[in-house]
């Protein structure tokens, strides 16, 4: 692949001032570039909002909110971080990052792979991030161009490795983890409810902390709950759209996710807004803001280590193996029901994805060696 450095950054063409209305996508995708990326080469100018007719100001604000709602906050942060990394790399190499150049992108992903610090999945995510960022700026990146596609195929062949899945938390593991929590404290009650609800609901960590007490109570809520006689109905906005998750009552009070949640809500005096919040004031006060999704991962790691789960591994290995997804994988791996029910609970669009989560349950269940007569 030939290298094509440029001595000057490409200069964007001036905005056509004869248009009655500026491009609404350009308008809402300003993303505060001047404040956030003052150290980066300038992007093509975007029309200022004060150039719009007055009656369209509110419409532009609404459009901006829709742009933000098109992806999760975590996705937007990742895309912004990847774009900043790429534009910084271009600047250091003397390349222009606009307009999109497949040769430059091909060299960039080559540099990532050659450094040996980025997995193939990370490189593919950064490539997707560049495509998204270029598309938002009205200049699509051609990922099928040979300078990108051929290099990416070589990176996959040379550097791809089996996926490192998080260890599944099984019921006996979860019970041991619950025993490490102090039931006499607000923090212990909260953590107990989070672990049991996350496991029984097969929820992602962002879905756990994104729950509200009721519908339409917060701007950043991802769902709400309804407590019924037979269990808990959770309405969620996940990766695949809206879905209902049924969490039945447990066979005993000690492991019932619904009772654990009811107990936390009662003692925390929560009847509106986020379900899971930070406990402050030496464990005696409950804040108003919802927990960060990272808190779920830290909780799973901490309690799994304290309970001695997978004690055959070193502490470092155990820390790497357990995370928020371990609860979700645990339900799929331990629920002895028809696969379609697990698929529905997890919100998967395909049975193949569900089977990836069933890590321990089906291992050696079918012995083809014996079935073949050996």
Explain what the structure shows.
By secondary structure, the chain is α+β, with helices and mostly antiparallel strands. The chain has two domains: 24-159, DNA polymerase, domain 1 (Orthogonal Bundle); 171-357, Intergrase catalytic core (hpI Integrase, Chain A, Orthogonal Bundle), CATH 1.10.443.10. It is 48% helix and 9% strand. The protein is built from 17 helices and six strands. It has helices at residues 24-28, 33-36, 57-69, 73-93, 102-115, 120-136, 146-159, 171-178, 186-201, 205-209, 257-268, 294-307, 315-321, 325-334, 339-346, 351-357, 368-371, and strands at 211-212, 223-227, 231-238, 241-248, 277-280, 285-290. Strands 1-2-3-4 form a four-stranded mixed β-sheet. The chain has a two-stranded antiparallel ribbon with strand order 5-6. The longest helix is centred in the first third of the chain and has 21 residues, at 73-93. The model is unreliable at 1-48 (pLDDT under 50).
Put the structure in a nutshell.
The chain has 2 domains: 24-159, Orthogonal Bundle (DNA polymerase, domain 1); 171-357, hpI Integrase, Chain A (Orthogonal Bundle). Helices cover 48% and strands 9% of the residues.
Order of helices and strands: HHHHHHHHHHEEEEHEEHHHHHH
Instruction: Report the end-to-end length measured between terminal Cα atoms.
Output: 53 Å
Proper CATH architecture of the largest domain:
Orthogonal Bundle
The amount of beta strand, in percent, is 5-15%
Tell me the name of the CATH class of the largest domain: Mainly Alpha
* CATH topology (fold) name of the largest domain: hpI Integrase, Chain A
The main β sheet shows up as: 4 strands, mixed
Low-confidence stretches: 1-48
User: What fraction, in percent, of the residue positions are helical?
Assistant: 40-55%
Oligomer: single chain
Q: Could you report the average pLDDT, rounded to the nearest whole number?
A: 81
Count the helices. How many? 17
Question: What structural class should be given to the helix and strand makeup?
Answer: alpha+beta
Shape: globular
